[in-house]
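step: validate -> pass
step: tokenize input -> pass
step: predict -> running
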Amino acid sequence: MDKILIKFADDRGRIRETVFETAAPQDLRKALVERGYYILSEEVLDKGLWERVKGLLPFLGGVSLTELADFTKLLRTLLRAGLPLRDALDVFLEEAAKGPLIQAIEQIRDDIDEGISFSKALARHPQIFPEIYVRTVVAGEKAGALEAILGRLVVYFQGTVAVRRKLAAALIYPSVLLLVSLVAITFMVVKVVPEFVDLFRSLEVPLPLFTQFVLGLSSLIGTWFWGIVAALAAGTYFLLQFARTPGGRLGLDRAKLWLPLLGSLEEKFAFSQFARTLATMLNGGLPLVESLAVVLDSLENKAIAARLEALPGMLGRGESFARSLKLLGDVPAVMVRVVHVGEESGNLGEMLENLADHYDEEISNLTSTLTSLVEPLLFLFMAVVLGAFIVALLMPVLTAATNIR
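step: predict -> pass
step: emit ->
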């Protein structure tokens, strides 16, 4: 059950605020509307257990870009076929499986029935529909070109999904290989090394320093294994919580940019996202300064966003976009040149799309290079570590054999 503070007005204009406890907020809103009330705002005060769990684990209850792209594509197709927006949403909901996106669309449909605009209904679900989606839909509604705007959003989501899939595909194998290496090393330390302790005692030979270190490490990990696992889990949890704070997110994103190869990959992905998102909003008819504010807020890497945060103010003072980028200093030269050409030709949106495609190609090449380097390095790491353990275990045996001779 959720506790929701709702501010609503009656037909005489009298405004009231009441806290309701409900498991179905959409039914509560519908009931208020049926009684003749107009809902002005609502705020969740006390979330239910599942909502708290989703707050601790933000990957639960989310909506992927692929789901969002599929919904937008189908909605655009239905609108092109001549269906009204309300009927198009009904068609989408008919055979759709339950999930966060479907629940949000059901509420959006009910809001539209209450006379709320599509964009305002979308804005009530920021965890589902990002700000770029809402702002672009607002521009489409004002221009009477919602179907065309949805088409641009589909292209934007498909491009973003394609880049992320390339990154994921390139990193899956090295990640699995690293995990297997860590499991193998942990098994050696916890299970294999202790089997040699009694043998070494029976040999009655002085143990080399490295062997003593390996035995001590094995004893420590074996004794405190579950404590170490719990500490790692707790550390991961607190790191995730730290990453959700503005300062923590900014610090971690800055650290990513310092990583060899991965930092370059992170930077290229951020500038690709910047160029593609800005192009989508400009082509949708939104002003440059307003678009920049949304784009900077939506960038995943907050260190890059902080690097570019002065742009709206510089443009507001009358500087050109290209000169503003150049004055910032820490911006790739290719972006400055492309933006300059776009401003001069009056085709900034298309030039930014081309820039995003250029970065996507560089990302693809860099991921291929990264994969080709990481695989042999991981094999070498595993071979060196396992070889070191084997040498540490064999050295006392060889020493004892030499003494016997």
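step: describe -> DSSP finds 19 helices and three strands in the chain.
step: cleanup -> pass
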